[in-house]
Amino acid sequence: MDGMTPLPPSTGQDAELVIAVENLRVSFRTDEGVITPVDGVSFSAKRGKTLGIVGESGSGKSVSTRALMKLLPRNALIDPTSRMLLHVGREKQVDIAPLDPDSKAMRKIRGGSIAMIFQEPMASFSPVYTIGNQITEAVRLHRQAANSPLAATETVGEQIEENILGHGKMTKKQAHEIAVEMLHRVGMSNAGLRVNQFPHELSGGMRQRAMIAVALSTQPALLIADEPTTALDVTIQAQILELMKELQDDLGMSIIFITHDMGVIAQVADEVAVMYLGKIVERGPTRRVIANPHHPYTVGLLRAIPRMDNLTRRLTPIPGDIPSPLERPKGCPFVTRCPKRMAQCAEVMPGDTDMGDGQSVACFLHG
Amino acid sequence: MTDAATPTVNGALPHNDAKALKYYTASQWQLVWWRFKRHHTAMAGALFLLAMALAGLFADFIAPYSTTTRDRDYIMGPPQMPMAWDSHGFSLRPFIHGVTTKRDPVTLRKIATIDPDKREYLEFFMRGEAYTLFGLIPSNIHLFGVPSGHIHLFGTDELGRDVFSRTLFATGTSLSIGVLGVMTAFVLALIIGGTAGYFAGWIDYGVQRVTEIVRVVPVIPLYMGLAAAFPREWSNIQVYFAMTMIFGLVGWPTLARRVRSHLLAQRGEDYVLAAELSGARPARIIGKHLLPSFTSYIIVDLVISFPYMILSETALSFIGLGLRPPSVSWGIMLQDAQNIRAIEQAPWFFIPAGFVVLAVLAFTLLGDGLRDAADPYSVNK
Amino acid sequence: MSRFIIQRLFGMLVTLFFVSIMVFTIMELPPGDYADRYAFRKYSGTGINVTESDIQNIRVEFGLDRPAPARYLSWIGGILTDFDFGQSFAFETSVNRVVGERLVLTLALLYATLILTYAISIPIAIYAAVRRHSAVDYGLTIMSYLGLALPNFLLALILLYISVTVFGSSVGGLFSPDYVDAPWSFAKVGDMLLHLIVPSLVLAWSATALQLQTVRATMLDELNKLSVTAARARGLPEWKLLLKYPARLAINPVVSTIGFDVNRIFSELPIVALVLSLPELGELLIQSYLDLDMYVAGAILMMLTFFIVFMNFLSDVLLAVLDPRIKLEGG
């Protein structure tokens, strides 16, 4: 059977939204007090497109995407005014924010509508189960036995059988076939053999490919990639990025790509959101933001990466460290390190200013 | 949550610069001490053990009687608790009720009865039986006592000996056996484990084999077998030191293994390579870098092995293969509790058991606290 | 796999060889030898004057005049060829006859204790780790500290005290009075199993305390692993997820310490048996040490160690089956 049914191709400029996050605020109760690593963030991802979220560690980029999956620790609190709209089909949408993390609806979204891959491919597999075991698990949780259009015209007998046998759950054999096919699809040679191997028997790059296979085996509408290439060698990193792009073209899913690396963003993202200390300070189409950064932080980030076309230029690091979330400045979060700070920056958080062509920035320099 | 919260280092989160500076420039032992202080249970354990050790050390002074003094008028008598008031009213000076003895008309045995009309007032720093503290300072001053009659805070045993006094002396004996046993094991472990770790080869192989054997033979039966070999005519002192020797002999392989594995683990660390590359001589690397990196762990290992020594001593003496009367240790005192009839009539024979449990508990809590404090990179969980 | 097993079996034999030398040394340690004690026991109080030459005759009779290595070889040879552990002089019969039934009872006690330990500690520790800071979790912490601090034989004494003062009957012994000398029957086995409960609970006491801590700690480690988050991100129901991922891995340290647990149980067995008057090997061991009946003591020490080594081997094999990361070849 054909495992993959491509989603309808995206329709250019007005691609439909897969997820729209509005005013997301996440707080943690800790021994030292309440901290708010994500403070009123809005972003959205479109079908067949990649949104890159870039920021240093501590910027809240991981927390905001884990909030989407309800994968936050127990002491986390999502502000009730936050909205996370997941678009299901053309008209329907579900707000993830108020869902109970342990509810059935949430479990269907996790792995089903939204899948996730992580930074450490070794650690994201359990060492005592085969790769195949962990793919079939996802497949059998989310994919119905009858998912090809042809199977809609099944006999009454089959329907009854399906109802009795757990809502059309796939047999282990069917799921296994899909697992092999997925591994093949992510570029693993000998997929039939690899499927029965344990994670420690694969190389780092192969593990990350396997992780992508697990995530995409359920045909999610959105793939969250949390620094998927940070732990890999540069050559392997390029291969994985290439693979993700290919799979996105084939399957049409949307990707939210989290990284601290502006270079990676330039390669993969259609749009970019720059996060600093729980806030998005600048956003817009990737090309525009890179060519014409407005926020001093974005400028700093871009100055800190080496460029092949200008090897004589000295790299300029951003001075200082990102403050702890307990010591968040009252006004603009970047005020403690900003080379162009003004008196008002320490007092008031600047609002978003539209810079045209979808680019906007939260900075008084431009407000 | 990789980047949710900057990891808060156990000890103190640097809230302001002065505090942060103090934190970042503190020495390793300062850091250990700061983290240890936050461990209230471990602190309590340490203070309790200190009190116990002092009580054992100054048993001659604190205990009103010696280990062999018999009160023939109060045999298997229940504990007497000092009180401040009775049916006759209130008294600022604590007292106990006196004892009158009658003979049972049938068995002619002496029976002690408490006389609620007779008050025996407690006196402090009272002169009593003579003793020499640490075998050096002759004295006869005791912390407390009663001028006439006797006081037995924990009651008396079958021979009319004061259980409180005996428990104090037993505390000294049992703790000191533990200390000497651990020390012996530690010295052996350092020498043999260090040699094995340094020379590797067949010495290392031999140590590994011995460790393996000691690991599979059940410990207390092994102690018992070694203790059974003590000649009957040995003096108590000889038995005492022989026991610390066997604890040391059986205890060292486990410790040696840890010394060895700490050494091996640390030797592969980058900072050792860095020291080598910057031209440090081996002596400096070992003394300045390797040793400090695991002394704290070794101390933890030592503290953790105390309870095993103490329990082993208690168990051996309890079954009659360890120390022998007239020595007193917790195990010897508990021999009296082996007899069901005896403990039915005199549950206070269990009091030394309470000391054993509290001592082991205190050592365990202390060990846990030290283990957490010893890790310089431990992160608040 | 078979190569792995053979390798471990060989290692087991090597260990047992060294252990047998150590046991033999312990048997030889007490002052005087078997002939002295035999003569003393046989003739003391009979008025017969025993001379040094009489004792020498006994020595020759038992082959005790030979050097230690030769005596070791005949001792170990007897065990290996005829399963003959020598003579007990206190009972004046063969060691095998003295040990006899007690071996079965000891093993019954051991397995009952192991089963109780794991049946109690694993589920409770897993639950406590998942529901951290709950009442069960705090209860577990207190219990595990108590379990480490209160030695088994004191617990046995306390239970004995309670059973005598409150219920007016003793919890000691392995059989009801009616069955002590009765031949083996289903009724007798049933009676024994009933009497096994209290001793095995007492013996399981500290092993459980230790396993509670170990399993809880591993489970907490495992719960924070990225693989668990990854599985949760696949939409696996929470309880299924906990069983399949962290709990499955929290079992591994338990399996790897089976031999250690058996060692611990056997270590504590003699004294607990003495307090609860259980007719098994540990109690006999103490008795034979006190009587210097060293052939019996040596036999028991060898048997107990054999089971520890055997359970170590079993745990190695089990772990290799459970954890694919363990290399089957080499070390």
Q: What is the makeup of the main sheet of chain A?
A: 8 strands, mixed
Mean pLDDT across the residues of chain A is 83
- Cα-to-Cα separation, first versus last residue of chain B: 13 Å
Q: Could you tell me the radius of gyration of chain A in angstroms?
A: 22 Å
- Overall 3D geometry of chain A? globular
Order of helices and strands of chain A: EEEHEEEHEHHHHHEHEHEEHHEE
User: Which secondary-structure class do the elements of chain A indicate?
Assistant: alpha/beta
What is the assembly state of the chains in this entry?
heterotrimer
* Gap between N and C termini of chain A: 56 Å
Description:
The complex is a heterotrimer of chains A (367), B (381) and C (331). By secondary structure, chain A is α/β, with parallel strands linked by helices. Chain A is 29% helix and 22% strand. Chain A is globular, with a radius of gyration of 22 Å. Chain B is of the alpha+beta class and 381 residues long. Chain B contains 13 helices and five strands. The longest helix of chain B is centred in the C-terminal third of the chain and has 38 residues, at 282-319. Chain B is elongated and about 90 Å long. Chain C is mostly helical. In chain C, 77% of the residues lie in helices and 1% in strands. Chain C has 13 helices and two strands; from the N terminus they run ααααββααααααααα. Chain C has helices spanning 2-28, 34-43, 52-62, 68-82, 95-130, 135-149, 152-167, 186-223, 226-233, 238-256, 258-276, 281-291, 294-322; strands spanning 87-88, 93-94. In chain C, α5 runs antiparallel to α6 (135-149), α11 (258-276) crosses α12 (281-291) and α11 (258-276) packs antiparallel against α13 (294-322). The radius of gyration of chain C is 24 Å and the shape is globular. The model of chain C has no long low-confidence stretch (mean pLDDT 84). Classes of the chains: A alpha/beta (367), B alpha+beta (381), C mainly alpha (331). Chains in contact: A-B, A-C, B-C. The interface between B and C is large, with 42 and 49 residues.
Summarize the structure.
The complex is a heterotrimer of chains A (367), B (381) and C (331). Chain A has helices at 61-69, 104-109, 131-142, 156-164, 172-185, 191-194, 204-216, 234-251, 262-268, 286-291, 296-303; strands spanning 17-30, 33-46, 50-54, 76-78, 83-88, 92-95, 114-117, 222-226, 254-259, 271-276, 279-285, 353-356, 359-361.
